[in-house]
Design a protein that fits this description.
Blueprint (H helix, E strand, L loop, with lengths): L9 H5 L3 H8 L23 H5 L15 E5 L5 E6 L7 E6 L4 E5 L3 E4 L30 H22 L10 H11 L22 H8 L6 H14 L3 H14 L5 E3 L5 E3 L2 H33 L16 H14 L6 H13 L6 H11 L9 H4 L8 H12 L11 E2 L5 E4 L9 E8 L3 E9 L10 H9 L3 E3 L2 E3 L4 H8 L6 E11 L5 E17 L1 H10 L5 H19 L14 E3 L4 E3 L1
Parallel strand pairs: 8-15, 9-15
Antiparallel strand pairs: 1-2, 1-5, 2-3, 3-4, 6-7, 10-11, 11-14, 12-13, 14-15, 16-17
Helix pairs in contact: 4-7, 4-8, 6-8, 7-8, 9-12, 10-11, 10-12
GO cellular component, one term: P-body
GO molecular function: 3'-5'-RNA exonuclease activity; RNA binding
Organism: Micromonas pusilla (Picoplanktonic green alga)
């Protein structure tokens, strides 16, 4: 039977599935339905392939089989000797430690693995009993494996402590780690110096733990040590190689200045030049640590000092790291938005070091105890980064102005208004008198009102340090303990201030008020005035009540204010009276207050 001729529909009729349709559409019988081939197709290796195929430089499953003795560091840094009790699961091996605990350690955390095939693993030595792989306690209370591991660990720890206590300078009586390092150099494990007499780093292959133990427990030079290791192995009922390998590992692990650590429990001896450089770095670090601890002790003494013996606020602004710590604590106390993450971490470390609670309130209390802040501290200026002190160039500029007055650029156009009776009305305790008022009667019942403001441009030119500082401040700031002037007080309180009885430069504004309270004309310009009297609001009210007709200027100002108020009320203004509060803070220590 002959087959039917092929048509474009026959492949789709053979199957109803979408996958078969795709396969049938590119089967070579229909070239027009083939997918387009990708042009210029090149193979590029994955950037992660190198990382995925790189050899891991730590012990694997073959090195940590059941019954293998391994060593690692606990979270607190102490060395732990253990035996593997089960196969690794997800790169974590179950172990029984020398103190009888059951743990699971990651493969990459294993720093020591007793090599097999040389009697160093407990179950490899034919002369000793194999280690039990369970943690069941023996009649004595602890498992037999834990007791045997504990004996090995105790010997290694005792040997390391005895070596750390040795400080003899004689080569024959030098510490054991130093003697082992010298033997490693003499054996040619590492070149001491380059042939060109230039010290170089070691390029030799690292030593495994067996080779390292051979240098530590040298039969000819360390007979007493070898004998003690045999006794320890007999007491622990383990192979002597395990005792020596683990003791050498623990000993050399505490000597980073002489031996460089590598993966899989290997070490290489450093060159003499490297040892000297490492010792110099260690001495420098020790000196820095001692200096840091002395600085912390100084901070602790200030915190524990009685209230009357606190150091001045600038005591810790000494340019050292202590200043950075105190500034970080201040930034933390100011709250979010005023500190960086580094300052927050430094402040938390500061508080934790002295046992204080972690919080902004605790930081403020610590600054008060330190003497940096007082019991009440105005934080609004600090939170807005308002400068509380003038920079040195601004202070130098102010001193130069006091010593020699700059030329008056407006002397040709400055109007002489010293004929007017000017009154400076300010609050009690005002240091900077920066404004004054006056008035004079005109024909037709009109009143000319004058407002005079101290002319700062007479003393401070554009582009000078004082002008830049004044621009950044904008105005004088007032807080319960005093004032933050826009200019240094010697300039603001003496040169610029409208001191009574002295001719002072000012910027004057005048306006004519008619009988209806409307303004007819105005003028603004530089002037020279002389303040007749400086008074508070209470004193002005008393002067008008007790001395009528004597202060014509004040009475004209009151009349002008009345006219303006009536005009505003006729135009629909609403007079809302709000209570005013005046606070006066007294400083117990200084006996002074500020409104």
């Amino acid at each position: 039977m002959s087959s039917a001729p092929w048509t474009a529909r026959s492949p789709f009729a053979a199957s109803g599935s979408l996958s078969s349709r795709r396969i049938s559409s590119v089967d070579g019988r229909c070239p027009e339905l083939r997918p387009a081939r990708r042009a210029n197709r090149t193979w590029r290796p994955s950037p992660n392939r190198r990382l995925a195929t790189a050899p891991r430089d730590y012990f694997g499953r073959d090195d940590t089989r059941i019954g293998s003795v391994v060593g690692y560091c606990a979270r607190d840094g102490r060395p732990v000797l253990a035996v593997v009790t089960a196969p690794a699961l997800r790169r974590r091996i179950p172990v029984l430690t020398h103190d009888g605990a059951v743990d699971a350690v990651e493969l990459k955390s294993v720093e020591f693995a007793a090599p097999r095939g040389m009697g160093s693993a407990i179950d490899d030595d034919p002369g000793v009993d194999p280690i039990p792989q369970s943690a069941e306690p023996a009649p004595g209370g602890a498992s037999d494996a834990s007791r045997r591991l504990a004996a090995v660990h105790a010997y290694a720890t005792r040997l390391t402590h005895e070596d750390e206590g040795s400080s003899a300078t004689d080569e024959d009586e030098s510490p054991l780690a130093e003697r082992a390092w010298r033997r490693a150099l003499a054996a040619g494990c590492v070149p001491d110096e380059h042939p060109s007499s230039t010290a170089v780093s070691s390029a030799a292959a690292p030593m495994d733990v067996a080779s390292l133990a051979a240098h530590v427990f040298h039969g000819d030079e360390e007979p007493a040590l070898c004998e003690s290791s045999v006794s320890a192995a007999t007491e622990a009922n383990v192979g002597v190689d395990l005792v020596r390998c683990y003791a050498a590992h623990v000993l050399v692990s505490g000597e980073p200045g002489r031996f460089r650590r590598h993966g899989k429990g290997r070490f290489s001896a450093r060159t003499a030049h490297e040892v000297e450089s490492f010792a110099a770095d260690a001495a420098s670090q020790a000196a820095a640590d001692s200096e840091r601890e002395a600085a912390w002790a100084r901070v602790g003494e200030a915190i524990n000092a009685p209230p009357g013996s606190k150091p001045p606020p600038s005591h810790f602004l000494d340019g050292t790291v202590t200043q950075l710590r105190v500034e970080a604590l201040e930034a933390y106390a100011l709250g979010d938005g005023n500190r960086t993450s580094a300052q927050r971490a430094a402040a938390i470390d500061f508080l934790s070091r002295f046992g204080a609670k972690i919080g902004e309130r605790s930081a403020m209390d610590t600054l008060v105890a330190l003497g940096r802040w007082r019991g009440y501290e105005e934080l609004s200026f600090a939170r807005r980064d308002v400068p509380t002190a003038f920079p040195s160039d601004a202070l130098a500029h102010a001193a130069a102005i006091e010593a020699e007055a700059p030329p008056d650029l407006d002397c040709q156009i400055r109007k002489d208004l010293t004929r007017l009776r000017c009154y400076a009305i300010d609050g009690e305790g005002t240091v900077e008198v920066d404004d004054a008022v006056s008035a004079e009667a005109l024909p037709g019942g009109k009143i000319r009102v004058w407002v005079h403001v101290a002319d700062a441009t007479r003393w401070v030119g554009l582009g000078t340090p004082l002008e830049a500082e004044a621009e950044s401040r904008g105005a004088s700031g007032y807080h319960p303990r005093g004032v933050l002037p826009m200019f240094p007080l010697p300039v603001a309180a003496r040169l610029m201030s409208l001191t009574p009885g002295e001719p002072k430069c000012a910027v004057s504004v005048t306006a004519v008020i008619d009988e209806r309270g409307a303004t007819e004309e105005y003028w603004v310009g530089t002037s020279t005035i002389r303040v007749t009297r400086a008074a508070t609001e209470g004193e002005v009210i008393k002067m008008l009540a007790e001395e009528p007709g004597r202060h014509e200027g004040l009475e004209l100002l009151v009349e002008a204010a009345r006219r303006r108020r009536e005009l505003r009320l006729k135009r629909g203004a609403v007079d809302v009276r709000m209570p005013e509060a005046t606070a006066r803070v007294f400083d117990v220590g200084e006996g002074e207050g500020f409104v």
